[in-house]
Amino acid sequence: MAEGAGGEEPAWQWAAFSPSELAFPLQLRSWQDGDRTRTFGGGKKLKKMFGELRIPKEERGRLPLLVDAEEVVIWIAGRHQAPADRVWREGGPTPGALGSEEPWHVGVRCVGGD
Known about the structure:
Helices cover 15% and strands 27% of the residues. The chain has 3 helices and 8 strands. Strand 6 and strand 7 (80-81) form a beta hairpin. The termini are close together.
């Protein structure tokens, strides 16, 4: 991840998830060939999404990914958060999509060099 403007440390990247919508255990890892995520339009391979998001090839392997027990990438840090499984299956966002429970907040920050 690139440094912030003026050379300061990069900011934290955050996402919020409803625990009841997650398939445990979760894993934080780098990209692997064949990885998929969900979008409101359906499923999509990360290779295609990386191209659409204009993420340089040399950066793709360094982006932290949060992956659920079904091997679905549910978060590309700072770039994409998959819709909750229930929301995805019903075809779109709904009010209160995170549910009535307290959401979990996940954050990552690059702290080292390459």
